[in-house]
Design brief:
alpha/beta, Glycerol-3-phosphate (1)-acyltransferase, 7-stranded mixed sheet, 7 helices, 15% strand, globular
Length: 241
């Protein structure tokens, strides 16, 4: 059974990247002239990954809570590529704070820039935030849901990584509500490796944190809520928290 799951997981991973290339080419004429085309391509890709993950690997997915539709910050637990897929698919105009190196990834980087993602050099987050605010004010960038991963990297279930203050600075400078997001997707789609496990992968949008808190208080509340609810979801999935 494990061997079969591994083979099906391998098939899933290969077709997932092939689908990315095919959709990127198919949507290229529209995406080249309109960010709406790029967003449509990304949404189509998300739905395809969700569908094939369930069919090939038995990994079902669920989005809980109220996905925001207004302009806000989304601060999410990051365990694997699957939480990116589920969060982006759930909101109308998601865009990510992303590592600048991803700009050069084939297909992924070009489409990320077209939908308004903000590339950030490590250690220069403040400059990127200032530019993003100026672009929105000038109408050069569409407002939407800005998605950030406070720990700055994927964190496997059971591992601990500090929450970086950059999320608090973003919250303070933009003066927007922040929607925390908890997840258990790493139980089924690991940080590394091929094997995808059957079960119910969940991302949960938690109640928003209103703007106006001091940065230290905000960071304490954000970490407590995301970790508490992520642990609950992982325990629900059978992971020994």
């Amino acid at each position: 059974m494990i061997a079969l799951r591994w083979v099906l997981s391998l098939v899933f991973v290969v077709q997932m990247y092939l689908a990315m290339a095919v959709l990127a080419v198919v949507f290229a004429p529209w995406a080249l002239f309109s960010p709406k085309g790029a967003r449509a391509a990304c949404k189509t890709y998300c739905r395809w990954v969700i569908f094939t993950l369930r069919i090939l690997c038995g990994t079902r997915s669920e989005v809980r809570g109220h996905a925001p539709t207004a302009e806000c910050i989304i601060a999410a637990k990051h365990q694997s590529f699957l939480d990116i897929i589920l969060i982006f698919n759930a909101v109308p105009a998601g865009k990510f704070i992303m590592k600048r190196e991803l700009m050069y990834a084939p297909f992924l980087g070009q489409y990320a820039l077209r939908i308004g993602c903000v590339p950030v050099n490590r250690g220069k987050r403040g400059a990127a935030i200032a530019k993003m605010k100026a672009d929105v004010a000038a109408g050069a960038a569409e407002p939407g849901q800005l998605i950030i991963y406070p720990q700055g990297t994927r964190v496997a279930p059971g591992d601990a990584k500090p929450y970086k203050v950059g999320t608090g600075l973003l919250y303070d400078q933009l003066a927007q509500p922040c929607v925390p997001v908890a997840t258990n997707v790493g139980v089924f789609w690991p940080k590394r490796g091929i094997l995808r496990k059957p079960g119910l992968a969940v991302v949960e949008f938690l109640p928003p944190i209103a703007p106006g808190l001091p940065v230290p208080s905000f960071m304490t509340r954000l970490e407590a809520e995301v970790e508490l609810h992520s642990n609950r979801l992982m325990a629900e999935a059978g992971f020994p928290v």
